[in-house]
Design brief:
Layout (H helix, E strand, L loop, with lengths): L1 H18 L5 H22 L4 H14 L1 H14 L8 H30 L1
């Protein structure tokens, strides 16, 4: 029985791997940058920094690189929809959930692109 389960799991893994095209390294790195940015934006949110102050930083970044500025603005909009928590544990959970969700969304999008192009 155990050998049958193992064989089924291996077969499933191999067939699933054949369906998914690998995500290019540069896209993985971009997702990591987005994740890190999301973490910093939410950390700033949980520290009580006013949205206007963070928005100014996004505007400045956008003058140097329009894409980066737009990414930051999107992160800021989303972060400030989430409450600022007074409890340290809730703050840490909000930060962790926020950056994990953005990383996951980025990876899912990258996988879809890789499969469309692969």
């Amino acid at each position: 029985m155990h050998k049958q389960c193992l064989a089924a799991a291996v077969t499933f893994t191999i067939s699933f791997s054949a369906l998914a095209s690998p995500v290019p390294q540069e896209e993985l790195e971009e997702c990591q940058r987005i994740e890190n940015s999301a973490k910093q934006v939410m950390k700033t949110r949980q520290q009580g920094v006013p949205m206007a102050s963070v928005w100014e930083l996004a505007e400045a970044a956008g003058k140097q690189n329009e894409y980066v500025g737009e990414v930051f603005k999107s992160l800021i909009r989303e972060a400030y929809e989430i409450p600022q928590y007074s409890s340290e544990s809730l703050q840490q959970k909000a930060i962790s959930d926020f950056h994990s969700n953005f990383y996951k969304a980025c990876i899912v999008t990258a996988e879809k692109r890789a499969n469309a192009n692969g």
